[in-house]
Amino acid sequence: MVEIREATEADHDAVWDIFREVVSAGDSYPFEPDMPREQALRYWTGSGVRTFVAVVDGRVVGTYILKPNQPGLGDHVANAAFMVGSGGRGRGVGRAMGEHALREASQGGFLAMQFNFVVSTNAGAVALWRKLGFAVVGTVPKAFRHREHGLVDVYVMHRFL
Ligand SMILES: CC(C)(COP(=O)(O)OP(=O)(O)OC[C@H]1O[C@@H](n2cnc3c(N)ncnc32)[C@H](O)[C@@H]1OP(=O)(O)O)[C@@H](O)C(=O)NCCC(=O)NCCS
User: Is the full-model pTM beyond 0.85?
Assistant: First the structure.
């Protein structure tokens, strides 16, 4: 069973462990693979961002953030980002967080959700977002320097809520 709740400061160590592992792989997010903890936590838990954690058997195994995709006249579209630690993948945590984010965004009054930077080679993520109703609405050619594959395309994915 996956419990999803808002993160507190007590979750920062666990969030950082997951963030560091995901980012250091260099295959899904454009952050510097050796981004320092303070900078990472400022991005992931800073002001204007709602931060959630997914807990299984009392352990934080995943985290996601929800925020407006743009300020001002673009703030009716939500943006979210998701990370599951490698040990917790393939057990429905990503799907549970995705569904939770869609519910939270709807309840928060957003009209749509947009992902700006889905690495095209990230097959698991692309498949999951499609299953949750997102469509690829744009492809940015060679926008990501993948650690293994070199320059790869990035998708913008979108769905109305
Ligand atoms: C992407 C990510 C969040 C998915 O989390 P997860 O907990 O492993 O995903 P789930 O176990 O909920 O699986 C989600 C679905 O994707 C499917 N899936 C997983 N890998 C797949 C693949 N390579 N091809 C097709 N489908 C795949 C699963 O079968 C599952 O389908 P179902 O819900 O219909 O059974 C996780 O792998 C992760 O954090 N990766 C690193 C960071 C990242 O890529 N974040 C997203 C950036 S856009």
Answer: yes
* Closest atom of ligand 1 to CA, residue 89: 8
> What is the maximal distance between C-alpha atoms in the chain?
41
What pLDDT, in 10s, does the model give residues 36-73? Answer: 999 999 999 999 999 999 999 999 999 999 999 999 99
- Where b means 16+ CB within 10 Å and e means fewer, 47-80 reads eebbbbbbbbeeebbbbbbbbbbeeeeeeebbbb
Which SS3 state, helix, strand or coil, does residue 66 take?
strand
- How many other β-carbons are positioned within 10 Å of the β-carbon of residue 144? 23
For residues 32 and 51, what is the distance between their CA atoms, to the nearest angstrom?
21
Query: Ligand 1: residues whose CB is within 6 Å?
Result: 22, 28, 82-84, 89-95, 115, 118, 122-125, 127-128, 131
Chain mean position to CA 147: 19
